[in-house]
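hey so u asked for the seq, here:
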Amino acid sequence: MIDVFEQRKRDMLSKIDKSFIGEWDKKIIPLCNKINSKDNFYTTSSCAGRIVLMIDQDVKEAGLFVKVWHDQVFLPELKETLNNITKKDLIKFKVEPPILHIACKDLESASELLEKAKHIGFKRSGINALGKNIILELNSTERTEFPIIKEGKILVDDEFLKIIVKQANEKMKKSWKKIDELKKLI
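ran it, structure tokens below
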């Protein structure tokens, strides 16, 4: 007879992807596959990190994201995207770190994985739920967020954009390195 955790794992891993991009983030697939190959874990959601332009508001809804990059961004593309934004909303530039939600079979397994993740830099991580599922959230620290467009006007100059593109790309590379390191530790 199959246990309840194994059945939930099978059910979760057989579902179609409902993410914003409609497919798995390629840079996190090897880590998710490694996690999902273990008896005590399965992933419920993941992202390898992203750079976004989005409307500044508290409620998540359709149309919130103006542009999303799951890879590095380059200055000409960023400038072109900024110049083509016609919305009068306040638009934010964000760099978001990798995040994973992992169902764990037991508290001991969750604690062990949490310690490994924290050791390599997933500092904003913890156990989120202790109900029928023990859910571990692994979250890194590579964040940046600031307003970039207000009422259709770009708020920063090209020199600032050069700096922020360089920093954003460095944060993305650092994030991907942490993903690879965690895969090796599991």
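Residues 158-185 form the longest helix (28 residues). The longest strand covers residues 41-47.
lmk if thats what u needed
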